[in-house]
Amino acid sequence: MKYKRILLKLSGEALMGKRDFGIDHDRLHTYASEIKEVVETGVEVAIVIGGGNIFRGVQSENSAIDRVQGDYMGMLATMINSMALQSALDGVGLYTRLLSAIKMEQIAEPFIRRRAVRHLEKGRVVIFGAGTGNPYFTTDTAASLRAIEIDANVILKGTRVDGIYSADPEKDTSAERYSTISFKEVMDKGLNVMDMTAFTLCHENKLPIIVFDMNKPGNLLEVIKGEEIGTLVN
């Protein structure tokens, strides 16, 4: 395998499947099965998942909920998704640990870097919940930060599109897909890969990012093998 330790970033919306809200259990089971295939090759897997299928902190900007409170609500949404994913992974026979950036002792261990690394070394899938534990930071930033802390080889950003395009492929049929692109090119072209804080963290720490279609069966395993799936940012 090309990568020994990965951080998989999933959006909360990905868990909706064909639903308009919440969690699609068929999609959850599919993801768990795909992750199991990767773990069985000996690759160490950490996961960060968003909460947009339940609540986004930015939703509160034009409501009675202030931004900080809204962001904490979004962190709790990521914990709901993390618990659902943990249960699905347990169901396919994997050993898992859920680590939270906010203390929730009844349902998750507190995030401690050395503990997280030790879990990975023992072959457990580690899920990082509650973002960074701070308002004003997205789960993209949490994924970048955790990946750097655990010394991951790459961030795999699983989306519903098959890579990075010159424009939105759902709106512009002439949009060009990049197979590889540099951090500088992404910034110069103003392409939307991650929020700038997350992207800068990866750039400064020389951590490559692969954006790929997580919903195509087998793609995750192919990426791990080093196949040219999606777009590599390095």
Terminal-residue CA separation: 19 Å
Count the helices. How many? 7
Q: Let me know the average pLDDT.
A: 93
CATH superfamily name? Acetylglutamate kinase-like
Strand content: 15-25%
Radius of gyration: 17 Å
Task: Find the structural class using helix and strand composition.
Answer: alpha/beta
Main-sheet strand order equals 4-3-5-2-1-6-10-11-9
Examine the secondary-structure arrangement and name the CATH architecture.
Answer: 3-Layer(aba) Sandwich
The parts where pLDDT drops under 50 for at least 5 residues are none
Give the tally of β-strands. Answer: 11
Summary of the model, kept short:
This protein is of the alpha/beta class. The protein has seven helices and eleven strands. The protein has one domain (5-233): Carbamate kinase.
Task: Note down, in words, how this protein is organized.
This protein has 234 residues and is α/β, with parallel strands linked by helices. The protein has a single domain, classed as Acetylglutamate kinase-like (Carbamate kinase, 3-Layer(aba) Sandwich), CATH 3.40.1160. The chain has helices at 25-39, 67-91, 113-121, 139-149, 183-189, 196-204, 219-225, and strands at residues 5-10, 44-49, 96-100, 109-110, 125-129, 154-159, 164-165, 177-178, 180-181, 209-213, 231-233. The protein has a nine-stranded mixed beta sheet, sandwiched between helices. A two-stranded antiparallel ribbon has the order 7-8. Strand 1, helix 1 (25-39) and strand 2 (44-49) form a beta-alpha-beta unit.
